[in-house]
Amino acid sequence: SFLPHFTVWGPDLRAHGWSTPPADGDYEWTSLAADLLVVVDHLGISAGELDCVGHSVGAATILLADATRPGLIRRMYGYEPVMWRPGEAFEAGENPLIAGARKRREVFESRAEALERFSARPPFSQCRADALHSYVMHAFEDLDDGTVRLRCRGQHEAETYDGERVSTSDRIAGCTAKVVLGKGMDQGFGNLGEPAAEVLPNVESISYPDLGHFGPLEAPNLLASDALDALLK
């Protein structure tokens, strides 16, 4: 457990969880990083005092925040930060994940129905049962008609994928924090962990050949243990 060692905060990115969508429609990941800096300032965390754990867009956001405010992070564990090499990111509107997000089913009769559907097909079918249950319990909001709806709406998810294009590894080359990056099995994507690991000057990489991009939900105990080790070194 992290709690005996750290005061733990888990901010929701814009339009995710309990955070509202931005009024200006800005989902670029550098803006997500700016949001994180607002949280850091609100909590009174000084440069070099922040220890972080992040996954996917969360891990990338942490690194981009440090790029904006060099020296912010002290130690970090990140699982597959989504980050591109310069010149390799999709152009605006061309990320293939956008179309799928816009078509995503948002409303279910109940959390039980959502859990049954998610557990029957990848990638959620690969997740540990209790981790998936926790996700479903918190990722949905209750509507007045008794149904439940994903808190992160499909259109907002699509716009977040589109904003990914500014997450490039050249931005983080100056990060001096001690960073441990986890990498799952090769799934044919060029933006999951490796571009960040190539440029960070003080990085250690851990390979998880049996895990996918949802590794933190597939093997939460293993990854939590590795993350805690990384932050206590």
From TrEMBL:
It comes from marine metagenome. Residues 5-94 form the AB hydrolase-1 domain. This is AB hydrolase-1 domain-containing protein.
